[in-house]
Amino acid sequence: MTVIPLAERLLLPGLSLLVALLFLGSLAVGPSAVSLPQAAADWWRGGDSTAAVIFAEIRLPRAILGLAVGAVLGLSGAALQGLLRNPLAEPGLVGVSASAALGAVITFYSGLTLAFPLALPLGGMAGALLATGVLYLLAGRDAGVLTLILAGVAVSSLAAALTSLALSLSPNPFALTEIVFWMLGSLADRSLEHVLLATPFMLLGAALLLSVGRGLDALSLGEDTARSLGFSVSRVGALVIVGTALAVGAAVAVAGAIGFIGLIVPHLLRPLVAHQPGRLLAPSALGGAALALAADIAVRLGGPGPELKLGVVTALLGAPFFLALVLRLRRSVA
Amino acid sequence: MSMLAAADLSVSLGGAPVLRGVGLALRPGEFTALVGPNGAGKSTLLRTLAGLAPSDAGTVTLDGVLLPAVPARERGRRLAYLAQASTVHWPLTVERLVALGRLPHLEPWRRPGPADAAAIDRALSLCDVEGFRDRAVTSLSGGERARVLLARALAGDPALLLADEPVAGLDPYHQLRVMEVLRDRAAAGTGVLAVLHDLALVARFCGRVILLEAGRVVADGPPSLVLEPGLLSRLYGVAWRDLGDGVMLPWERLGVSPPAPRD
């Protein structure tokens, strides 16, 4: 009988506890001193005290988005690394992050955001869905995984070029600043509407990603062997890529580009699940949620002055880590 | 008791014909060697029989059902395929890797049960790898890894086993061990088709040899009839030395290279 080591069996409960604590921490932290139990109780009773309003309209959406965005980034990173059998794959690879950013930038550029605040995430979602559609059409035609990734790279480059075009043609310097700040990635000042807009897509994407665990396990033996075990490699690939596109597209649409979570979290947790790609999925979702919530608490505790952007913090943490990872891989190969 | 049959099978890769009208039937209880020079189409034949490569013409049937019509999981349960020199992409432990052979038997979202654990243990001990059950596959030597991969294929208790060079890279002890395992499996009712290059092992262990030349079956029968010096010399461009008991060794090259495949 396969004996699952104690550390591995404690991983999911431990990470769940960590995420729950960080979620509460995220609810508790902010510039205005609010008693969390009192505010929550007041909100629950339908009260409209300042504390209840802060809780429901500022803290709660921020904590939920931290949880959900971090979870889908970690989960899709783990799924893509398993699919490509490459520890350097990350969610931005399939092109939806850049497309969602482009969609959002277009709403800024056109001034739609001034008329209608939700235009921003809606534009992001539209960009992400368009990119997903392109990938899905390719996936439906039984394109290989490599084709899908190359298509993602192409979509990504095109979206980045169009974003730069919009930036350089921007008539309004304030819009330009707004765009740049938005693209840095943040969870500040998001409303429950943002949550309601993005969550269904994130849930659907996450469900697709969580369904491929055994296919990813089989793929560790190569595509031929995976197929001989009864798995359709093109189906697993389509589920991972479309799932990532939906979930990460929605995440970027509401939170901007938050890098490195999808790269770091699966890599850190992989040894704890004995490198089995299918067993890495759920822990990576929880680990991503924990990292995003922790980083988002850190930016709020960052002292006086304007709050740091979440995407800046994750990149500051992530880039050195990435470098160390590359150096370690080089050593183990050499 | 499963049977795999190919009829008039033609396959081309990148526009070049690799198999030209191959017909054969694999029966339960037979240990069959697939033999032929490099490039004769042995691996392509195995992949096509496993349903992994599309054919231009002809059919493959599993128990009378056309292979594409057999549900993939069902096919995975009945037919195991051991790829040639396959890589393992993550440093999985030996036990977890062998457990992957049980995937076609697992119900969705269910954990493996005692029957799975027993099959995994059996496969580990058959291939003499239970000693490094908890080691990472990537830390093993090539020969050790080859035995672990064979254990993976056996863990599914397949009715048919297609093995591409199962003894390549093994030391003599483990070559004999693997040949014995395959022969015993066949005696227990599994149909085994293995690509092999060592004709001495073939003569000793296999009940049947299929000789492939340039995508065609040129001989099919018991080793004592098929492994005949004249045919082998022509096929490989090598003179053979008969050591008795049907054991043939390649002795010296005739000319510069094997005869070019005829079109």
TrEMBL record, chain B:
Q: Where is the ABC transporter domain?
A: 4-239
Tell me the protein's name.
ABC transporter ATP-binding protein
Which Pfam families would you find in this protein's record?
A: ABC_tran
Q: Which GO terms describe its molecular function?
A: ATP binding; ATP hydrolysis activity
Keywords associated with the record: ATP-binding, Nucleotide-binding, Translocase, Transport
Family of this protein:
Belongs to the ABC transporter superfamily.
Instruction: Extract the SMART domains matched here.
Output: AAA (SM00382)
PROSITE patterns the record matches: ABC_TRANSPORTER_1, ABC_TRANSPORTER_2
Q: What Gene3D superfamilies does the record point to? A: P-loop containing nucleotide triphosphate hydrolases
Give the source's domain of life in one word.
Bacteria
List the SUPFAM superfamilies.
Answer: P-loop containing nucleoside triphosphate hydrolases
What this chain does, per the entry, is described as: Part of the ABC transporter complex HmuTUV involved in hemin import. Responsible for energy coupling to the transport system.
- InterPro entries hit by this protein: AAA+_ATPase (IPR003593), ABC_transporter-like_ATP-bd (IPR003439), ABC_transporter-like_CS (IPR017871), P-loop_NTPase (IPR027417)
